[in-house]
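Long-time lurker. I teach an intro course on protein structure, and each term I like to show students one example going from raw sequence to a predicted 3D structure in token notation. This year I'd like something fresh instead of my usual example. Would anyone be willing to generate the tokens for the chain below so I can use it in lecture? Attribution to the forum is fine with me.
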Amino acid sequence: MKAAIFGTKTTAIEQELTEIFRWFEKNKYRIIVYKPFFDEMPAVCKQSASITGHFLSHKDFPQDSDLMISIGGDGTFLKAVNIVRKSNVPLIGINAGRMGFLATIAKNEILEALDQINNNEYSLEQRSLIESDDGNQSFGDFPFALNEATFQKKGSGMINIHVNINNEFLNSYWADGLIISTPTGSTAYSLGVGGPVMHPQSNGLIIIPIAPHSLTVRPLIVPCNNLIEIKIESRDKQFLATIDSRSVILPVTSTITVKPAQFTIQLIKLNSKNFYATLRNKLIWGEDKRN
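-- Reply from a regular --
Happy to contribute to a lecture. Here you go:
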């Protein structure tokens, strides 16, 4: 079995890393490690006989890997998606951060989770992405988001966001910004501004303004195959566009289209995990003394 390891910081998980690499050696895994993460690892881990190489980006990422393990929080997981890209290598996340909707494996569950993977006690979930395009390749060579695309004010004043769907006018939002969220992203930024929770296998996109200057504006769920067009007015003549964790500043003359990506990302779902239990645990649903 060949596995890739991606992470950004080791400080929160050094003790567990030692156990992880002992497990890899015991189970004859071949491990390729993200080089900056390798450089921070404890010496005992660096010396593991399971490590057979390193990678620095998507360009030298070994696409014949059987899986990639992201070690960190959900932000680290999103960066791992940018490494895996269209390779179809399945992803699973160990949570060394906070919330952990994408990085679902807690530190005290790591060895059990690795055993389940080794015993094929899992399934693969296909997660949809969205693609953003301004016609100038401003979003780089990977203009895709697993969670959301956001378009926000750059200065202190509100912006006016004009939205068309399939060439039909939807609305003009006076707000601090607008979020276009995937079902996977419904438990991320969208949730924080009052958006609905969608099951990650749902077929839809959430359109939700950030701090709208209107009491009647509500989130809207549209079919996932819709083409969403965005134009922005702003006194600053610029606005901030963010694709997951990657941001660019664009002029207000830009027209952005957001549409479904033509590929999916594969996530490893352990048989012992389910979305509804994750919702209850992460969002503390049902925390009531009467229960």
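Some talking points for your students: DSSP finds seven helices and 17 strands in the chain. The helical segments are 14-26, 35-40, 43-46, 74-84, 110-118, 189-192, 275-282.
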